[in-house]
Design brief:
Largest sheet: none
Radius of gyration: 35 Å
Helix content: over 70%
Low-confidence stretches: none
Strand content: under 5%
Shape: rod-shaped
Length: 128
């Protein structure tokens, strides 16, 4: 920095540093507001929920769980209805377990099992 020798230079230097102080103070206030906003507990929770929902692994698990629950409820309602027969309830529970296993398997396994099942049924129906 140069030495200040007269009043004009001193006034210019004071004005320069006052403007610099105002701009830096504005930046500090903006940064403070951003920090306060980002550390707000509601915003932290909202951010975590958003990141969890947007991750592909969670979406797949949620969809799979909802699909399994829906399949189980439909199976139970269709087969049992309002029956009080305990044997029927046990049979439906076993059927639900098998349907859940079938739904949980990857599509290629389901496809392979379906094809082999259909082929077996067709061979049994052939007239020899």
């Amino acid at each position: 920095m140069q030495r200040i020798k007269d009043n004009k230079t001193l006034t210019e230097a004071i004005a320069f540093y006052e403007n610099k102080k105002k701009s830096e103070l504005g930046l500090i206030k903006q940064h403070f507001d951003f920090t306060v906003d980002s550390l707000n507990p509601i915003n932290v929770i909202k951010e975590k929920i958003t990141s969890a929902v947007n991750s592909p692994g969670i979406k797949g698990k949620i969809f799979s769980t909802l699909f399994n629950l829906g399949t189980g409820m439909v199976t139970k309602n269709l087969l049992i209805g309002s029956s009080l027969n305990p044997i029927k309830k046990i049979a439906v529970t076993l059927l639900q377990t098998q349907v859940k296993k079938l739904v949980d398997n990857p599509p290629t396994d389901v496809k392979d099992k379906s094809i082999s099942f259909v082929q077996d049924m067709l061979q049994k129906l052939k007239i020899k």
